[in-house]
Amino acid sequence: MSLLKETQIIGVNDNRGRLRVSTGTVQEDYTCRNSDLDTFLLDSAGTGTDTFPFTNIRRLGVTSGQYRVLQSKIHHPYVHGSSQTIRFAMANFGAASNVEKSVGYFSTSTVSPYTANLDGIRLYKDTSNVYSVQIWNNGTQLTTTSLQSANWVDKLDGSGPSQMTINWANFNAFKLEFSYTGVTTLNCAVAYNGKWWTFAQYFHTNQTATPAFQNPNKPMRWEIRSTTGTGNLDMITGSVATEGQFEATLEVGIPVAVSGITIPGAGVRYAMLGVSLQPATRSLLARITSFEGQIKTNDFLDLALYLNPTVAGTFTYADLTGTPLQVATGTALNIVTGGTRIGAGTFNSLNMNNKSMVQSDLARLGAKIDGSLDRIVLVATPTLASTNVNTAAEIVCAWFN
Fold it and tell me: From CA 125, how far away is CA 168, in angstroms rounded?
């Protein structure tokens, strides 16, 4: 997985009061680049519309009784003792009677209309056009008056430290920064005149018997819901960053292997191995780090990873004990079509165990809003005219707790 380094220091101290000595590491960037994010990084669902009125704006729209949800396919790991920063820029968050709008770092159940078990943090506009920051813990809202707009430290009405009078319909950029353990502070800021201005804060220590929300590993999410009104919400950018070290928390990967598959002939793609998360562990981040292959006959073998291909025949995924993974093992009958090719290497009888490293962001195992899991399949294709090509292969998958 490629990791981007932030170039802008967010503030002198992080939200745990420590002097910053490093930049943040961006886990993922969701800047709108038209429909190229549609399949790979984000998923949308609901009865409303999802369009691109401009190349850099993704618009969620609803009419009476409709809803539309846009969510990242991965949950972003929280690193203990670090600050987690969620940034987003949006427009059309302004007044729309009888329409709710939300943007933030939160999840729900996987059952339509995706409102149950809400968990996480969101900037929220209710059906009466009242704004707040909300914290939810598995379907129960944490009651805190400090996050209601009437009690914000800067009400964004021109009277606060920023002197900003916000127009919620315009393009605006926000930042939610939190710690899940330790000081457990939530800072909410808006960008104005080249600076970040804190407009709301919450300190969770000694408030309840549980953490502020149930799970700190969350997707980014945008949603709009109508009771009887009509409205739009424009997604423009989004990112999740972790303060300081991130990749060091990656666990040692485990190998998943298959051997003795005899492929009938050349030029056809066959499934060797498939990997996905288990439904119960979809809040973890797992990725393929490498793969390698063997071929025992005199032939050349194209070995490649495909994201969400179609596999013919019986290709059953089962939990891999002691891991958050599910694995499927292929046979000669599992012909592969479709899918997105995300990593490849060529192997022959004289070049066995030639490991290929995988750096693509697409090698991460995610899930859709309805809980449907991404599946990455290792696919073998003999390239010569040989028949009955005996092959073996292995992939290595690692995950973040």
Answer: 10
